[in-house]
Write a structure and sequence with these properties.
single chain; alpha/beta; Rossmann fold; 5 helices; binds 1,3,4-trihydroxy-5-OXO-cyclohexanecarboxylic acid
């Protein structure tokens, strides 16, 4: 009898408030694709890299915090588009700070090029990096970044912080 194949590492995609309205909400800024389209794209990018994607959307910060707690020790990496919580979600910041694996911050739009209040991210200090301004392509890029960080961290002979 052959040994069971190990389960593929999980990437958790976390979507914050109002992102379930993508497709209807401000299409000039966020595009016309729906959240389910972005999740499918991220999922395909994960599968290509030997990872499996899980997704959770919530409007309430408490639910996102709980998802991060449940990810600790179980999930390999987190991709997070925190929506407006990006700019003031300190509880989500604190939860992500307890997660040991790679964290990739993601935005469809480029908050740096928008209203001044969007220019501050409280997620950025606890993320390995940020993908912003590339619309739906960002979902693929964010999963690729998470996979690169995981590979770099599991490389023999050290623990480089950046993928090559
Ligand atoms: C967003 C940018 C945030 O400022 C905004 O509140 C969102 C979406 C983005 O994906 O561009 O809800 O995170």
């Amino acid at each position: 009898m052959s040994a069971a194949r190990p389960a593929p590492p999980v990437v958790l995609l976390v979507s914050g408030p109002n992102l379930q309205l993508l497709g209807e909400r401000d299409p000039a800024v966020y595009g016309t694709a729906r959240l389910a389209d972005h999740v499918a794209r991220a999922s395909a990018a994960a599968t290509e890299r030997g990872l499996v994607l899980e997704h959770l959307q919530a409007d309430a910060e408490a639910d996102l915090v709980a998802a991060v707690h449940q990810a600790r020790g179980r999930v390999a990496a987190i991709v997070v588009n925190a929506g407006a919580l990006t700019h003031y979600g300190w509880a989500l910041h604190d939860a992500l700070a307890t997660f040991a694996g790679p964290v990739v911050e993601l935005h469809l739009s480029n908050p740096e090029a928008r209203e001044p209040w969007r220019r501050r991210s409280v997620i950025a200090p606890v993320a390995d990096g940020t993908i912003a301004g590339f619309g739906g392509l960002g979902y693929e890029l964010a999963v690729a970044a998470a996979a690169g960080l995981l590979a770099a961290r599991s490389a023999p002979g050290g623990r480089p912080t950046l993928p090559s």
